[in-house]
Amino acid sequence: MATTRTSPARSGAKQPKSTTGKAAKRSSKRAPTAAPTTILLVRHGQTPTTGKVLPGRAKGLHLADQGHEQAKIAGLRIGELKNVQAVYSSPLERAKETAAPIAAACGVRVQIDRGLLECDFGDWTGAELKKLMKLPEWRTVQSAPSTFRFPNGESFTEMQTRMVTALDRLRRTHPGGTIVCVSHADTIKAAVAHALGTHIDLFQRIVISPASVSALTWHAGGPVVLAVNSTGRPLTELRPA
Questions:
Q1: Is residue 133 part of a domain?
Q2: What is the CATH number of the domain that holds 82?
Q3: What secondary structure does DSSP assign to 184-214, as a single string?
Q4: Bridge-partner residues for 217, per DSSP?
Q5: Is 137 within the bounds of a domain?
Q6: Domain count of the chain?
Q7: Tell me: the pLDDT tens digits for 107-138?
């Protein structure tokens, strides 16, 4: 016997609802990607012990007269940008004294962030560099720093992780803006090496001079390097390619 099929529409059966429209709505409500943040990494100015002693986190070390002059110049250069949202500094005196004229030129106050602190050199803190250079461990510090931990102090990899984590946190606080982070030679070298995709064992090849500016544009996909160890040309020229 022949049978007649009845369509769901004719029989009154409910048809499944389409999910295409809902999916499109959910897609349209996704949070937008945060705008990139430009981070200016500034090393503190020269001190009376620069190039002579490994001061580390020892307190009481202030800028030399030349260091104060370098900080003023850095402030004038950065002040030309006109759009700096914040100035952060390591808690050590030499960093705060460098950050002060920069913050004044930008019309903001200095904020302290311990993530920008100098490497903890442990038992090597305060030692003369010429004596440290005679130690067998010095070759490891220069050629294979990823394998070295300062006695009773920090390792280079820990220092790099701390610094990069701090910068990532700060860039999220200022999406689309420009911020200044005043720190120290090794911490800045480690951050630049990370941004370049360079292994920490090669970071000693990077030069970071007193009061120099290194610039990164940091976005969700990672950092892009705009300048390293800049001490002269106008910072207004910095543009991502």
A1: yes
A2: 3.40.50.1240
A3: -HHHHHHHHHHHHT--GGGGGG----TT-EE
A4: 38, 224
A5: yes
A6: 1
A7: 999 999 999 999 999 999 999 999 999 999 99
Residue 70 is part of which domain span? Answer: 49-237
Residue 112's DSSP bridge partners are 89
Instruction: State the CB neighbour count (10 A cutoff) for residue 123.
Output: 11
Residue with tokens 């009773």: 152
Alpha carbon distance 235, 78 (integer Å): 7
Return the closest-CA partner of residue 168 out of 131, 212, 216, 122: 216
Alpha-carbon distance values, 93 to 6, 31, 214, 239 (Å): 86, 40, 21, 32
Handedness of CA 138, 139, 142, 144 (dihedral sign): negative
pTM of the model: 0.84
Quick check: is 9 in a domain?
Answer: no
Name the strand (E) or helix (H) holding 138. Answer: helix 137-143
